[in-house]
Amino acid sequence: MHSTGEFKDGEYEGTWKVYHQNGVLKQIGDYSKGKAEGFWKFYHENGRIWKYGDYVNDQKQGFWKYYTPERILERTVLFKNNKPDISVWQNKKGSDMKRTNALIRNKPIIPN
After folding, report:
1. Half-sphere exposure of 93 toward its Cβ, with a 13 Å CA cutoff?
2. pLDDT by residue (tens digit) across 2-31?
3. Is there a contact between 24 and 47 (Cβ–Cβ < 8 Å)?
4. 18 with 10: CB under 8 angstroms?
5. Do the bridges between strand 83-89 and strand 73-80 make them parallel or antiparallel, or are there none, so unpaired?
6. What letter does residue 47 receive in the DSSP assignment?
7. CA-CA distance, 5 to 10, in Å (whole number)?
8. What domains does the chain contain, in order, with CATH numbers?
9. What is the DSSP string of 62-75?
10. Fewest CB atoms within 10 A around its CB: which of 9, 71, 74, 100?
């Protein structure tokens, strides 16, 4: 695996890119004083988006979306303090919500 970016005072700083062994971009995001900050994107080995979302002070925050290698939305997760608060799974079509499973505060619920 190969990566590009800069260090400042021995810590990650600015935009960093990490590549899969096949040379395809694996992830891109910014660091501030060694901590992940802002919008990050991660990719499958085929170059298609895998997941994306925000980091605040090196912790996942807000909504993150996850996709299959075939570009189908797999799930949406709401993170609070780097922990999933709500997870909504899609079926294989990605748009049909009939088979949705959700977690609220890490406890399963059954939607109506």
Report:
1. 6
2. 999 999 999 999 999 999 999 999 999 999
3. yes
4. no
5. antiparallel
6. S
7. 12
8. 2-109 (3.90.930.1)
9. EEEEEE-TTS-EEE
10. 9
- β 35-43/73-80 pair status: unpaired
- Residues near 26 by beta carbon (within 8 Å), at least 6 away in sequence: 1, 18, 19, 20, 42, 43, 45
Within the chain, strands assigned E span 2-8, 11-19, 25-32, 35-43, 49-56, 59-67, 73-80, 83-89, 102-104, 107-109
For residue 61, give both structure tokens: 């925050």
97 φ, ψ (degrees, to nearest 5): -90, 10
Count of beta carbons in the 10 Å neighbourhood of residue 79 = 20
Cβ–Cβ under 8 Å, residues 53 and 64: yes
Which has the closest alpha carbon to 86: 96, 94, 95, 76?
Answer: 76
SS3 90: coil
In tens, the pLDDT along 67-91 reads: 999 999 999 999 998 998 888 877 6
